[in-house]
């Protein structure tokens, strides 16, 4: 095994993401959710933008009836709180240690939102091979 170091210069100012951030800095910084993430409570946003009280987990079945909330995977009360918030159009941060069901909750949120939008299924397929040929 050989130890080696490789150095390089990377011109990040030429990358499209960097250019996009530079060109849209005011719009980005002015967005209420960006301000909420960056400044927390100091963002002084109206309660209807980022602040809300999720339903009490003990009352989740009363507030969000299971038969009216389509879930594709099992969900506990705290996961159903997140699904309900998503269905209500709320913006929120879902956090938790590994293995607590965040990915499962996101799957349920997507399914519930698709159902609410009237979608019945989702599929991804590869486009058929092109039958045309390029001529030079």
Automatic annotation (TrEMBL):
* Protein name as catalogued: DNA2/NAM7 helicase helicase domain-containing protein
Domain called DNA2/NAM7 helicase helicase: residue spans: 76-116
Coiled-coil positions: none
Q: What's one GO MF term for it? A: helicase activity
- Domain of life per record: Bacteria
Any one Pfam family here would be: AAA_11
Location of the region described as Disordered in the Swiss-Prot/TrEMBL record? 116-136
């Amino acid at each position: 095994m050989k130890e080696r170091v490789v150095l390089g210069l990377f011109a990040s100012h030429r990358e499209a993401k960097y250019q996009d951030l530079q060109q849209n800095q005011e719009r980005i910084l002015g967005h209420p959710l960006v301000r909420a993430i960056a400044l927390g409570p100091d963002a002084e946003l109206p309660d209807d933008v980022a602040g809300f009280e999720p339903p009490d987990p003990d009352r989740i079945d009363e507030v969000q009836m299971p038969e009216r909330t389509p879930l594709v995977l099992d969900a506990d009360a705290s996961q159903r709180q997140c699904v309900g918030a998503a269905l209500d159009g709320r913006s929120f941060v879902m956090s938790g240690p590994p293995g607590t069901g965040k990915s499962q909750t996101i799957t349920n949120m997507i399914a519930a939102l698709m159902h609410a939008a009237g979608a019945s299924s989702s599929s991804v397929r590869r486009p058929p091979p092109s039958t045309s040929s390029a001529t030079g």
